[in-house]
Design a protein that fits this description.
By secondary structure, the chain is α/β, with parallel strands linked by helices. It has 10 helices and 13 strands. It has helices at about 35-50, 75-80, 90-95, 115-120, 150, 160-165, 190-205, 205-215, 220-240, 245-250, and strands spanning about 5-10, 10-15, 20-25, 35, 60, 65-70, 70, 105, 110, 125-130, 130-135, 170, 185. The strands form 3 sheets. The chain has a 7-stranded mixed beta sheet with strand order 1-2-3-5-8-10-13, with helices on both faces. The protein is globular, with a radius of gyration of 17 Å.
Amino acid sequence: MTSAGVVNAQPVAATWTGDGIATVALRDVAGKNALTPELVEALIETLRRLAAWDGLKVVVLVGLPEVFSSGASRDTLDRLAAGELNPGELLLPRAVLDVPVPTIAAMEGHAIGGGLALGLCADVVLIARESRYGCGFMNLGFTPGLGTTRLLENVVSRAVAHEMLYGGEPLKGGHFEGRSGFNYILPRSQVRPKALEVAQRIAEKPRVALVALKQVLATPKRVAFESSRAEEILMHRISFAQPDIAQLIGSQYGE
């Protein structure tokens, strides 16, 4: 890769500059950045290409102004319910966790379910006071996945995480002020500028030192994701085996 460039391809776009900052944007407006197979594949491939760039120092992950990601797509849920997709194949979090340099999630828009899990994989996480963040898995009739059962505890207490996982209520970012480990909770308009400010500060550091520190600091989160996968896969097999799971999912989509 060159020292600067742009890739403008739906549903993921990436830009990178000579100072080592790469911005990866999810931009499926029609689908509200749902985690469709196309978006997931494009994101994984984009991160893989960026990781191979020896000038990379930090990655900033952004979504749409109103929606960071609405979580798993309806098609993905239907395939899981029909047994056509193995929950063990859902490895997007690993792709983010394996980026060799620090990652920043600028979640200025709503982030629900798998969309929230995606952002929680970043090393630095910013959310907006006005937007909503939640784990709606149980609302759809099945147990949480994508490592959420452990990743959520990196930004909120275990008690709060359990309430969010059981209840499924999306909460405004302002709800977490003074009671969470999110790096910044800001007005929506300030989330992305602040993320780029943090990225610039990180990019001033030597890459070799950033890579070494990332390897150490990200290890607990990687371990948490990997250890939760087996438990979540087992829970998915149980919950997706319910005879009425398709109807439960459909009821949440207005059917």
